[in-house]
Specification:
Number of helices of chain B: 6
Order of helices and strands of chain A: HEEEEEHHHHHEHEH
Distance between the termini of chain A: 71 Å
Shape of chain B: elongated
Structural class of chain B: alpha/beta
Oligomer: heterodimer
Strand content of chain B: 15-25%
Helix content of chain B: 25-40%
Largest sheet of chain B: 5 strands, mixed
Largest interface: A-B, 62 and 54 residues
Strand order of the largest sheet of chain A: 2-7-6-4-5
Strand content of chain A: 5-15%
Chain lengths: 228, 211
C-alpha cells in the first residue's frame, strides 16, 4: 500500500446536498408563506377561538391603542386608484397622477383627505415614523365630518365591482362560484387595549351604512371545549 | 461529483491525470444564492393567515318606524367596564320604577373559566343539552351534517335559549368585549346583541367601579 499523501490546501467538500437543502427550503417558503403586508401601524389584536381565516376581498378598518382609525382595502392598485379618485371628487382635493399611483400600492393609511397629498408624498418609513410619534390625525369619524363613512361607502362600491368581475371570470372558466364569496367583507382590526368606545364609533359608522355583519381580527387561542 | 477546485492547481511532481467522469464545479456561489433567498423569504413572510371572528350587529331601527317595547324573555345583560364584568338577568328595573318591581342589582363575575363560562353554561343549559344530544347522534351517524347544523340553528333561536345583550361603559377595552363574545360563542349562545348602555345602568356600573 502506498503511503497516504499529506492533504494540501482546502479539503474538497461535496456541496451538492447543501444546495439541495437550500433550494428545498426556498421552495417551501415561497409556496407556504404569504407576504407580510406593509402596514402603517401595528396592533395587538385580542384572542378568540374562531378558526375562520380572513377572506380575500376585504375593507379593513384598524383601530390602534390610542383610538386612531386607519383604513385599507385589499385588491389591485386599480381599485384603490378609483377609490381615491371618487374621494378626491367628493372632497375637491386635487391629486397628481404620481400621487394616485402611490395610493394604489398603499396597504393602509390614517389621515384626513386634506392631509392626503402630503401623506402620499412621504416615504413609507416617514409615514410609519409619524404614526409611531402620534402625529398623524387619523381619519375623522365625527358626525359632522365623517370621512370614514365615505371611505367605507366608496370602498364597498369599488370592491363590489372587483368581486363582480372575479365572479364572472370564475363563471366563464366553468366553475360554479358562490356569489357571496365575492362580496367584500368588512374587517375590524382593533387593538386589545384600545377602549371599546373607539371601536364603537367605527361600528356605528358601519351600521349607519346598513352594514351589520362585521369581522374582528383575532389571534387564535385553544378552544376549551375540545380539550375536555 | 462537484468539488471545490483547489486554487493551487497542479503541483510540481507528476503528470496531470486525464480528466475522468463529470467535470468539477464550484457550488459555493450557488449555496450563497440559495441561502440569500432563504433568508429573504424567512424575513418577509407570515405563516398563518390572521383569523377573524364574525359578529352580526342588530340592524339600526328605522327612525320612521314606531318604537315597540319588546319584552325580553330568558335574557342576560352583561355590562362591561375596565376588566370588570357585571350582569343581571331578564329585564332592567330602575330605582322606583312604574311597575313597582324591586330595583335591579348588578352581580359581578370575572373572565375566568369559573366565572362567566360557568355562569353561561348554567344559564344556557337548554341549548347545551340539546347540542350534546345532537353531537351523539352525529357521531353515531344518525343525522347528517346539514341536519345537525339546522337543528343547532333551531335550538339556538328557540325561545328557551339564552339571549345575551352586551353593554359597555366608557372604560371597557376591546379585549373585554372580544373576550366576552368569545365566551358566548363557547357557550353556544345564538342571539348576541351589543347595544347602548342606558343612563340608569351606567350609574349602577359607575357606583360599583368607583368603590
Amino acid at each position: 500500500m502506498a503511503k497516504a499523501s499529506k492533504p494540501k490546501g482546502a479539503p474538497a467538500i461535496d456541496m451538492t446536498p447543501i444546495v439541495d437543502l437550500g433550494f428545498l427550503l426556498v421552495t417551501f417558503f415561497m409556496l407556504a408563506a404569504n407576504f407580510r403586508s406593509d402596514e402603517v401601524v401595528q396592533v395587538d389584536t385580542p384572542y378568540s377561538i374562531s378558526e375562520m381565516t380572513i377572506p380575500e376581498n376585504v375593507v379593513m378598518i384598524t383601530v390602534d391603542k390610542g383610538g386612531r382609525v386607519f383604513f385599507g382595502i385589499s385588491g389591485k392598485p386599480e381599485a384603490k386608484e378609483n377609490l381615491l379618485k371618487r374621494m378626491a371628487a367628493k372632497y375637491k382635493v386635487p391629486f397628481s397622477q404620481e400621487q394616485i399611483e402611490k395610493f394604489g400600492i398603499l396597504t393602509d393609511f390614517g389621515c384626513s383627505m386634506q392631509e392626503m397629498p402630503a401623506f402620499l408624498d412621504m416615504s413609507s418609513d416617514d409615514r410609519k415614523r409619524l404614526v409611531a410619534e402620534g402625529k398623524t390625525m387619523a381619519i375623522p369619524t365625527d358626525s359632522t365630518n365623517n370621512q370614514l363613512k365615505d371611505w367605507i361607502n366608496f370602498g364597498n362600491i369599488e370592491m363590489l365591482a372587483v368581486g363582480e368581475k372575479a365572479y364572472y371570470e370564475a363563471k366563464d372558466k366553468g366553475f360554479d362560484p358562490n356569489i357571496n364569496e365575492f362580496k367584500p367583507k368588512f374587517i375590524l382590526k382593533v387593538d386589545g387595549k384600545a377602549e371599546y368606545v373607539y371601536a364603537k364609533k367605527v361600528i356605528e359608522t358601519f351600521r349607519d351604512l346598513n352594514i351589520n355583519n362585521l369581522n374582528f381580527v383575532t389571534g387564535l387561542k385553544a378552544d376549551p371545549r375540545k380539550s375536555q | 461529483m462537484a468539488q471545490i477546485v483547489d486554487a493551487g492547481g497542479g503541483d510540481g511532481k507528476g503528470k496531470k491525470k486525464a480528466k475522468k467522469g463529470t467535470p468539477m464545479m464550484d457550488m459555493t456561489p450557488m449555496v450563497d444564492l440559495a441561502f440569500l433567498l432563504l433568508t429573504f423569504f424567512v424575513m418577509t413572510s407570515t405563516f398563518s393567515k390572521p383569523k377573524v371572528m364574525s359578529l352580526v350587529y342588530p340592524a339600526k331601527p328605522d327612525p320612521k318606524a314606531e318604537k315597540t317595547e319588546q319584552k325580553i324573555n330568558n335574557a342576560v345583560t352583561f355590562l362591561l367596564s375596565n376588566d370588570r364584568i357585571f350582569y343581571y338577568q331578564d329585564q332592567f328595573y330602575p330605582e322606583g320604577n312604574a311597575a313597582g318591581k324591586p330595583a335591579t342589582q348588578l352581580e359581578e363575575t370575572d373572565f375566568s373559566p369559573q366565572g362567566v363560562r360557568k355562569l353561561l353554561t348554567d344559564l344556557n343549559r337548554f341549548v347545551l343539552e340539546k347540542k350534546a344530544g345532537y353531537d351523539r347522534q352525529l357521531k353515531s351517524k344518525e343525522i347528517a351534517d346539514s341536519t345537525y347544523l339546522r337543528l343547532m340553528r333551531q335550538a339556538k333561536s328557540d325561545n328557551a335559549a339564552l339571549k345575551v345583550l352586551i353593554k359597555t361603559d366608557d372604560k371597557a377595552t376591546c379585549n373585554n368585549f372580544i373576550d366576552l363574545v368569545d365566551e358566548l360563542k363557547i357557550a353556544d349562545i345564538g342571539v348576541i346583541a351589543p347595544v347602548d348602555i342606558s343612563a340608569d345602568e351606567f350609574k349602577l356600573v359607575k357606583a360599583k367601579t368607583d368603590k
